[in-house]
Amino acid sequence: MAEALMEEIVEEILLHLPPDDPASLLRAAAVRRQWCRVISAPGFRRRFAQRHRSPPMLGFLTYAVGQDEHWRTSTVARFVPTTPFRPRRTEHRDRRAVDARHGRVLLTDDTPFQNALEVWDPITDGLWQLPAAAVPQPINWNAAVVCAAHGACCHQDCRREPFLVVLLDSETASIRARVYSSDSAVWSEPTYGPPSPEYGFQITPAALAGNALYFLVYAGILEYNLATQITTMIHVPPKTLYDAVVLTTTGDGQLGFARVEDTKLCLWLVETHPDGGAVLSLVRSIELETLLPVIVPLIHDCSLSFAHGVGVIYFGTSAAWFSIDLKSNQVREEECRDGQISTLIPYMSF
């Protein structure tokens, strides 16, 4: 009885360790065999996730363009840690990160005429090569990786569960959607949605809100319903989603977007209607000229990224990338290592 009580007390202490420092659990396990037994118990990981609720951000993926030793252009998808966590490999040569969600990263082969898709788990270093899906040119498609148990999973720690990859493209007259399931290891037959937009997709990660994935196109926002497998277009005023813009979500699951207007970062909410229309509500405006240590012209030519569930905006200029915590307004310059960084995708997982 005393030993069981002691293990309960030890577990309660270990559950309070910070989720963004996984090495702290390993250090604790190394101290005593009893602590190792507690951490290794089947239910500890689940209780740890339930206690901390939202997975912490362990780092981000960047897409760097540089030159090799022979002065040839080279590209690399690079994992940049923001916590003590380090994956077994931090670089994927000739790859570009497309999306990251539920502990997985979606990569595409960046070599000419390849465009194959892969799913990578940075925690275990597992890599799944998806069967060919005739991925078209970059501006004509986008894709997202998501837990397969949509609607029935809290997504606190579902990295070991089956996953889906949703691929939308505008190579046909209507938007074409295909879904890869890790359970069956095959792509579904295509379904078709609204007319394909003239200018294709914006190369920014999708957003998951409720039971739907959302993709940016220059004509609006594409909604793919995971339950019904129906793709619809959310129409917004012309040129609303041009240039520096990224999809966002709120803590209660509302869809929105952030956009740079002059020298301000503006945060909008999107309320959709059954007819495909949308009402946009400006909820916040942040003056960047006084917040960021860069000159005004660099603000107009920037890239944006958003850490869903964390509430952090990433703002990239030709000078540097910065993070802005929307709760505290704290600004930090991010160390992205070498190369010209054009994309930054946050990675969250326990």
Structure description:
The protein is built from 6 helices and 25 strands. With 350 residues, it is mainly beta. The chain has 2 domains: 2-49, no CATH class; 53-348, TolB, C-terminal domain (Neuraminidase, 6 Propeller). Strands 8, 9, 10, 11 and 12 form a 5-stranded antiparallel sheet that branches. Strands 3-2-1-25 form a 4-stranded antiparallel sheet, with no helix packed on it. It has a 4-stranded antiparallel sheet with strand order 4-5-6-7, with no helix packed on it. It starts with a helix and ends with a strand.
SSE blueprint and pairings:
Layout: H1 2-15, H2 23-31, H3 33-40, H4 42-52, E1 57-67, E2 73-81, E3 91-93, E4 95-101, E5 104-109, E6 117-121, E7 126-129, E8 141-147, E9 163-169, E10 174-181, E11 186-187, E12 191-195, E13 207-209, E14 212-217, E15 220-225, E16 231-235, E17 245-249, E18 255-261, E19 264-272, E20 278-287, H5 288-291, H6 296-300, E21 303-307, E22 312-316, E23 321-325, E24 331-334, E25 340-348
Antiparallel strand pairs: 1-2, 1-25, 2-3, 4-5, 5-6, 6-7, 8-9, 9-10, 10-11, 10-12, 13-14, 14-15, 15-16, 17-18, 18-19, 19-20, 21-22, 22-23, 23-24
What is the percent of helical residues?
10-25%
In total, how many beta strands?
Answer: 25
Q: What is the class of the largest domain in the CATH system? A: Mainly Beta
The average pLDDT score comes to 82
Largest sheet: 5 strands, antiparallel
